[in-house]
Design goal:
Blueprint: E1 2-4, H1 17-25, E2 28-31, H2 34-48, E3 56-59, H3 65-70, E4 81-84, H4 97-106, E5 110-112, H5 118-126, E6 134-138, H6 143-154, E7 160-164, H7 166-179, E8 185-189, E9 197-201, H8 203-209, E10 219-223, H9 237-242, H10 247-258, H11 262-273
Helix pairs in contact: 7-8, 10-11
Length: 274
């Protein structure tokens, strides 16, 4: 049997009693990074008396996930097999989904333990009252893919939760300041850790506050919903038309902004370029 086991996103005390029991019963441990996981096991042994009997560690990360899973046999899961990512919930902006699909395809029993997750923790801390929100994860790093994804995020009728690396946080705040300067943004730094900090305000206010050493650490960003009518992007028509995107992608965004069909918007864009 396979058990997907979430691990603390920072504070080691967030490990559950059930997770400790599952780790003690584990015989094979699949993990994103064996060094990170062995360090976690060492801390759990020191602080919570964990006594495991793991026979084998197998690394499964984003670069080798498919290849590694193809080497598995159904017989392997006659033992107690556990998968952990480096921190948080497997399959949520972390590997694991392909492993679950493999188990489904081959009739292998599996279960998922509930546990720490950064996006839910950040939304609870944000103070946004909307009972519905969207989890987006990481935006594309650059180029047209990022522009298109950001336009989609800014047009959401619900608050959106993003993950962002410290070296790209300034860039994100600059983009938000340019496109939605009045939008409320919540930023959570190092959730559950010693240096946990919360910030809330407009993009320019956060940009002025979060500087220097404050930028270091892991970030979760929550963007308030678009104040415009449902389905209308936070970027206006002129801003969308100014994006350097292929006509088909731009037509989709314009259709959302105007309520017209994608075909009509596309034909208009093409006719302009002639």
């Amino acid at each position: 049997m396979l058990t997907l086991l979430p691990t603390p996103i920072g504070n080691i005390e967030d490990i559950s009693l059930r997770a400790l029991r599952v780790l003690e019963e584990a015989e094979i441990l699949l993990c994103e990074d064996t060094r990170v996981t062995k360090r976690l096991l060492h801390l759990l042994s020191e602080r919570h008396g964990l006594k495991h009997r793991i026979e084998r560690f197998v690394s499964i990360h984003s670069h080798n996930e498919a290849e590694t899973i193809r080497s598995f046999s159904v017989d392997m899961f006659e033992k107690n097999v556990v998968y952990v990512s480096d921190a948080g919930m497997p399959c949520i902006s972390d590997p694991g989904a392909l492993l679950v699909a493999w188990c489904q395809e081959h009739g292998v029993d599996y279960t998922v333990l509930p546990g720490p997750s950064a996006f839910a923790t950040a939304y609870a801390a944000s103070g946004f009252a909307n009972p519905r929100f969207l989890f987006y994860g990481f935006l594309p790093h650059k180029g047209k893919a990022r522009e298109e994804a950001l336009a989609e995020v800014l047009g959401s009728r619900y608050p959106v939760v993003l993950y962002e690396a410290p070296h790209r946080l300034e860039k994100l705040l600059e983009e938000l300041e340019r496109h939605v300067p009045e939008r409320t943004v919540f930023a959570a730094k190092e959730l559950s850790k010693r240096h946990e900090r919360f910030f809330k305000g407009t993009p320019s206010e956060l940009k002025e506050t979060i500087t220097g050493t404050l930028l270091k650490g892991e970030w979760v960003i929550v963007l308030d919903a678009s104040p415009q009518r449902a389905g209308v992007p936070g970027m206006d028509v002129a801003q969308i038309e100014a994006l350097e995107l292929p006509p088909k992608q731009k037509a989709k965004l314009l259709a959302k902004a105007t309520g017209r069909s994608v075909k009509e918007c596309y034909e208009e864009l093409v006719n302009r370029e002639r």
